[in-house]
Q: What sequence folds into this?
């Protein structure tokens, strides 16, 4: 069987959806829908690896759904759904819990960061999380996965799991008619552009994140214009003018971050931004960046609020997406079970 190209990616509904999520992932989702069949998943089962307030979780699931649509993903053309409505994710994750090795998961840096010193107290789900992520992708035989830089290691694990499954069950896979011995294709990460790792506005050594206690560290997709302008005005920088060449951004994390954000929002490169602003002070660059950010982010926030006013419509979109997702997932899950030897 030929493996057709298919895009899958996911975003956790854990609140505070921010510019890093938008530039690192969602803008790529929008672009890929022109050329590929895409599934974009609100990964609510990933979210509960850390306790979530049920009412807030429901709201956040709708908020990510609204962000997808407001950013320009067409829910009629592409599949937008939430993970918990398609049972194959949980089923395949269990299979992968039995394929992946403890040693592989022990190397995951994100678990170490998230569990911190309280490793003994972290949920088993948080530890097994990358196996569920591999299941998300492979349940659809997805070939391309647009993500930010921080997901690279998880994608490598998904590739290792796909390969080990293919090797562990090589004979059964061939017997099922896959003569190339490939049942699960190796998914390719798509980590491209000038904003694959957007940093905190308060500290250029830390990633912009949903869980940073400081709201000033991130621009969220629902920030109003005034807030966006304020956050950029207060963003940490250094006293020097912007350089004219990329090399000049070395060891200037905060400056490099703002230049990357500008480039990504403008659909250009960091080099182009430096051509325009090289030699200029932040007092000139920041207002230009603020104006651009307001122009690009505010309409999305407005549209999200409009969509969130009608939760029933968002729920209907998710239900419809889940039905279409199941139509792809169910036969793949059924074949997986057969390959394993389940009756
Ligand atoms: P999540 O919800 O943390 O983030 C969603 C997407 O946003 C990207 N991202 C960033 N990109 C640039 N700069 C940043 N500061 C930044 N912060 C976040 C993430 O890389 C991601 O692409 N495990 C995933 C969700 C997931 C998934 C999947 C992704 C579950 N299953 C299957 C792809 C395929 C996560 O926690 O993303």
A:
């Amino acid at each position: 069987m030929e493996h057709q190209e298919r895009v899958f990616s996911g975003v956790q509904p854990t609140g505070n959806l921010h510019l890093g999520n938008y530039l690192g992932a969602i803008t790529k989702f929008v672009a890929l829908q022109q050329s590929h069949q895409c599934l974009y998943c609100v990964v609510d089962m990933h979210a509960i690896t850390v306790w979530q307030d049920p009412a807030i979780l429901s709201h956040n699931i709708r908020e990510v759904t609204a962000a997808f649509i407001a950013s320009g993903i067409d829910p009629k053309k592409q599949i937008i759904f939430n993970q918990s409505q398609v049972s194959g994710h949980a089923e395949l994750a269990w299979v992968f819990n039995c394929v992946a090795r403890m040693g592989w998961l022990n190397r995951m840096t994100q678990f170490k960061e998230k569990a911190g010193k309280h490793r003994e107290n972290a949920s088993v789900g948080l530890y097994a999380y990358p196996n569920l992520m591999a299941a998300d992708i492979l349940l659809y035989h997805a070939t391309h996965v647009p993500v930010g830089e921080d997901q690279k290691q998880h994608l490598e694990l998904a590739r290792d799991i796909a390969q080990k499954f293919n090797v562990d069950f090589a004979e059964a896979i061939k017997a099922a008619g896959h003569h190339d011995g490939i049942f699960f294709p190796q998914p390719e990460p798509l980590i491209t552009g000038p904003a694959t790792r957007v940093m905190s506005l308060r500290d250029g050594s830390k990633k912009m994140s949903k869980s940073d206690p400081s709201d000033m560290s991130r621009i969220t997709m629902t920030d109003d214009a005034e807030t966006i302008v304020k956050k950029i005005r207060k963003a940490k920088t250094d006293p020097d003018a912007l350089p004219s060449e990329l090399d000049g951004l070395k060891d200037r994390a905060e400056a490099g971050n703002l230049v990357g954000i500008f480039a990504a929002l403008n659909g250009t490169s960091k080099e182009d931004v430096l051509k325009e602003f090289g030699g200029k002070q932040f007092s000139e660059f920041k207002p230009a960046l603020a104006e651009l950010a307001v122009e690009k982010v505010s309409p999305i926030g407005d549209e999200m609020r409009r969509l969130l006013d009608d939760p029933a419509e968002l729920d209907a979109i998710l239900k419809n997406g889940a039905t279409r997702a199941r139509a792809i997932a169910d036969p793949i899950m059924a074949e997986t079970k057969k390959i394993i030897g389940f009756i």
